[in-house]
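Chapter summary example.
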Amino acid sequence: MPSTPRSSGAFLTPQRLGWIVLATLVAVAFFIVALSEDVYHDTSPAHLAARLFGDTGSRFGRPFGISLHILVRKCYSVVAFAIVGWTAQRALPPSSKPALRMTILVALYSAAIEYGQWLEGSTEGLRWNAVDVACGALGGFLAIRAGRLVRRPLG
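The structure predicted for these 155 residues follows.
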């Protein structure tokens, strides 16, 4: 019986193997960082918003009380999730819906981090867990958008 040719994405090339290794290392490193209390404190000083924006800038969005340091942390978490998604996209075979796939995969990755943090004793609460998972989903989506921009020819 003759074999049917497979798409080039189904084969494990040395380049794809390299992306798999890199994506795994990136995902593991960010996971470890996300669970580290020391990293949290080093990247989130107690008065970051006050240092950056003055005493009156330490709170944003009243009455919700979202501090600017939390807003900054959520922004760079989206960037970290986009990096995870960008490397994972290159490690995975082609998809007909890459944005949907990466949005879901990185949201699940973010949920796994939330679970790990809960196991470590986090008392953040379900509302903030949901916000963090949404940041993961946004990062996964942006990874695909960024990948498309990188591949576009200039001019």
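To summarize the output: The radius of gyration is 19 Å.
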